[in-house]
Amino acid sequence: MNNIAFDRNFEPPFGTAVALSPLVRRITCNNPGPFTFTGTNTFIVGHQSVAIIDPGPDDEAHLVALLSAVRGETVSHILVTHTHMDHSPLAAKLRAATGAKTYGAVSPAESKMTSDIRLDARVDHDFRPDVSLRDGDVVEGKGWALEAVFTPGHMSNHMSFGLKAEKALLVGDHVMAWATTVVAPPDGNMNDYMGSLRKLLKRDEAIYYPAHGPEKRKPLGLVRAILAHRKMRETAIFNRVKAGDGTIGEIVANIYADVDPRLHGAAGLSTLAHLQYLLEKGRIEVRNGRYISTK
After folding, report:
1. Was domain 18-227 assigned CATH 3.40.50.300?
2. Cβ atoms < 10 Å from Cβ of 35
3. CATH class belonging to 228-293
4. 186-211 pLDDT, tens per residue?
5. Could you tell me the pTM of the whole model?
6. pLDDT (tens digit, 9 = 90+) per residue, 133-150?
7. CATH 3.60.15.10 spans which residues of the chain?
C-alpha cells in the first residue's frame, strides 16, 4: 500500500551546525527513536542576528551546541512549530540564555489522551509563546523574513515557517521525507491534516526542511503522494470495517502487518484519526462499542 519513496539515508553529525543554504543551518539533537528518526533538527536562520526554529527537547548537550553555533551572533527570535516534547521544551532555557522572545501558535487546550494507546512524544503543556502567531504573520530579522503558515493536523497548534528569500518551508512534522506523519487524537485531526496538505499544494516552495530526517527538494510531489497514501489508508480502513473489523486492534492487525511492531501504537492512533474522519463524514458509526459501516 505504501507508494511513497522515502529517503532514510540521513546520518547527521550530532551537535554540529551544518550549512544547508546561504541562510539556513541545521543542528540535529541526539534523541533518535521510532518517532524522531535520527533526532530533532533545530534550524538557525540568518547570520549575525538569527532565528532559531524548534529548539528541541530539554537536552543540555543540545543547548550547549546551539549556543556554541551562534557564539558572536544575536539570537533575536525563537520559533516553535508545535508543542511536542521533542520540539519545544528547550525553548525556555534558550530564552533564558539569549533573551530572545519565543514565537508560536497558541498552545492547545489542556487535554488527556482518551485512548489506551500512547505516543512517547507527549505534549509540552508548559510552553507558552511570548508572541502568538496567526496564519500569514511575518517575523523579520536582519536579512531574513519568515511567514507563519498554519498547518494543523499533526497537532492543533502546528505552524510551518516560509523563508521566501530561498523559496523554502521549515515544515516541522507536517511533511517528512523519511516517513509519514503520525496524526494522533485527541489533539491530532485527520481532516485538518489533509486540509493542511492541500494548502501546501497552492504554495511554491522549492525545498522543505523537516524537523526529522533530510530536507526535500521539489516537495510538492511528496505532498501529493502523502495525500494519495492517506486516501488509500482511509479506503483500506473503511473496507476493514465493512469486512467486520470493529476495533482499532483488529484493523491494525490486518492493514499494518508489514509495519515495525514498535510503531503499531502510532498506527493505532492514525487509524483512530481516520475512523474519526469517517465518523464525521457519516460513512461509519459506533454500535455496542464497535465500528460498523453505514454505507
Report:
1. no
2. 19
3. mainly alpha
4. 889 999 999 999 999 999 999 999 99
5. 0.91
6. 999 999 999 999 999 999
7. 18-227
